[in-house]
Specification:
The complex is a heterodimer of chains A (217) and B (310). Chain A has 217 residues and is an alpha/beta fold. Chain A has one domain: Glycerol-3-phosphate (1)-acyltransferase. Chain A contains 9 helices and 7 strands. In chain A, strands 1-7-6-2-5-3-4 form a 7-stranded mixed sheet, sandwiched between helices. Chain A starts with a helix and ends in an 11-residue tail after the last helix. Chain B is built from 10 helices and no strands. The chains are: A alpha/beta (217), B mainly alpha (310).
Chain lengths: 217, 310
């Protein structure tokens, strides 16, 4: 309960105003965003802002149900960051190294999905080069192959890597695009899902207003 | 609350009455053809209520509130501009300084330091931003980037701050004040957009510049021009220090400049192959889609009256 209140305060007084005033979003097809779980939002990843921007699109009363899946080795490495990530943001920590035992690996994700939460997963695995799409990993497929009824929604964000790129502490205001796609079927083949996801990302990237800006140099 | 000059107050009432009329017409249209979709018209008129509501609120609140408000508009416009045009990742810090110039420019406005207000962006910021870029050291794409940054600042900060400076001019028409000047400028500019659109819809045949904007016709342009000039000559003596003759000229200036400003932003959008510059204002598009004409009319109107009366 305490964590839920903290989360609402943090988003109401810090994240939402910053996203609204300092950034400014061009949101496409907001109605496609899954409001209820079990659902997974798969987004591209360029900046720490990605998670906060995605979560800020949700009403404050729903926000406790939105759970970003984040690397345990990064976000739990320091006590302060760990407390903040777990209690205020409500991340689900994932041990990126523990590849051998998927049961243990996904335990918390499974629990959240059973609970009707909406997970945010970045299938590129890390933030990568600014505004460039890295290779997509298959973890989402392994998590969902036995949960075919889960809503899987692709989202592409653009411009956040320019506002706050990896390895830079200075936030520079820029408008950013958030394009939400239609949900895609999980299917029975990991590679096929990755291919479909890649196609969805490319289509959504073309809808971005701020896109051409970083095509030059 | 500061004292509201009498004529400025009447002008506000008139604008609100027009908005009310637009709303009534929309509701009548909807009642007459329930099957047609008027969503965009509804959004446009609702957005007008919000924009005019905010504008009148800040004008009535105090001079400083209005100045901060126009500074905030500059910030949103600059952000929108830099988000759609090509900028390099290497320029992030130069862009940051460009944003910082906004509070400084509006500070000069608030203290009424005309000499500094008029040269700060075109001299100091103009010289400084490329220096900051040199220190970053990325030379590939330098020319385009330096050009874009300065152009953006001139359009969104220098031009728009002229609207705010109207509030600092000494009262030459005590019945209208600086508020009267702002309402006159904004109303004539937006009225010109509407008048050109209506004349174009009714009689438009000969396209002026089909490559940039296929909807602009000579009939619309000339119709709007005459309408605004006549309107301005009637209303100028009432809201500004201008005589009716000067009002006629300023009406012509506003009509031509507004038309050009619209085309300049249209060309930017054509170049980038986008339809709107953003999503800030429902039914209108981005802030630049709404401010395009004003960025051209504001400095020209300002310097016309400044030369003649101040």
């Amino acid at each position: 309960m305490m964590a839920r209140v903290l989360k609402i305060i943090f988003f109401a007084f810090i994240v939402k105003p910053v996203v609204l005033v300092v950034l400014g979003l061009n949101v496409g097809n907001r109605q496609n965003l899954p409001r209820k779980g079990p659902a997974v939002v798969v987004a591209n990843h360029n900046s720490h802002l990605d998670t906060l921007v995605l979560m800020s699109l949700y009403p404050l009363l729903d926000i406790h149900r939105i759970r970003p899946v984040a690397a345990a080795d990064y976000f739990l490495s320091n006590r302060l960051v760990a407390w903040f990530s777990l209690n205020v943001i409500g991340i689900i920590p994932l041990e990126r190294k523990a590849r051998s035992r998927p049961k243990v690996l996904f335990e918390q994700c499974e629990k959240a999905l059973d609970n009707g939460d909406v997970l945010i997963i970045f299938p590129e695995g890390s933030r990568g080069q600014p505004e460039q799409l890295g290779t997509l990993k298959r973890g989402v497929y392994h998590l969902l192959k036995n949960r075919q009824d889960t809503v899987l929604t692709p989202v592409v964000m653009h411009g956040l890597g320019r506002a706050l790129p990896r390895g830079d502490g200075l936030l520079v205001p820029f408008n950013c695009d958030v394009m939400v796609g239609e949900s895609i079927a999980i299917g029975a083949d990991g590679q096929e899902l990755i291919d479909n996801l890649t196609i969805a990302y490319k289509t959504l990237l073309d809808q971005c207003l701020t896109r051409r800006s970083s095509d030059v140099v | 609350m500061i004292n509201v000059p009498q004529h400025a107050f009447y002008a506000m009432c008139l604008v609100l009455a027009l908005l009310l009329l637009a709303t009534v017409i929309r509701l009548t249209l909807k009642a007459c053809n329930p099957s047609r979709d008027y969503t965009e018209l509804r959004q446009r008129i609702q957005s007008w209520w919000v924009m005019i509501g905010i504008l009148f609120f800040v004008l009535l609140a105090s001079k400083n509130v209005a100045i901060v408000f126009f500074g905030f508009i500059s910030f949103l416009a600059l952000k929108e501009f830099l988000s759609i045009v090509p900028t390099r990742h290497a320029d992030r810090r130069a862009v940051f300084w460009a944003y910082l110039s906004i509070p400084v420019q509006y500070y000069w406005v608030s203290m009424g330091w005309y000499g500094m207000f008029i040269i700060f962006i075109p001299v100091y910021v103009f010289l400084f931003i490329p220096i900051r870029m040199v220190l970053i050291g990325e030379t590939r794409g330098f020319i385009a980037s330096a050009g874009v940054l300065h152009w953006a600042l001139m359009l969104t900060v220098f031009s728009i701050s002229h609207i705010a400076y109207l509030l600092m001019l000494p009262d030459k028409n005590n019945l209208a004040g600086g508020m009267g000047l702002i309402i006159f400028l904004i109303f004539c500019t937006q009225f010109n957009d509407v008048a050109q659109y209506v004349w174009g819809k009714l009689f438009g045949r000969h396209k002026i510049i089909p490559k940039v904007s296929p909807n602009k016709t000579w009939e619309g342009f000339v119709g709007g021009l005459l309408t605004v000039a006549v309107f301005a000559s009637f209303i100028a003596p009432w809201l500004t220090p201008l005589s009716w003759r000067e009002g006629l000229v300023v009406g012509l200036i506003i009509a031509v400049a507004g038309f050009m400003g619209d085309l300049v932003i249209s060309s930017v959008k054509r170049d980038l192959q986008i339809k709107d510059t953003g999503q800030l204002i429902p039914g209108h598009g981005g802030l630049l889609d709404r401010m395009d004409s004003l960025m051209y009319t504001a400095p020209l109107f300002f310097h016309f009256i400044y030369y003649l009366h101040y």
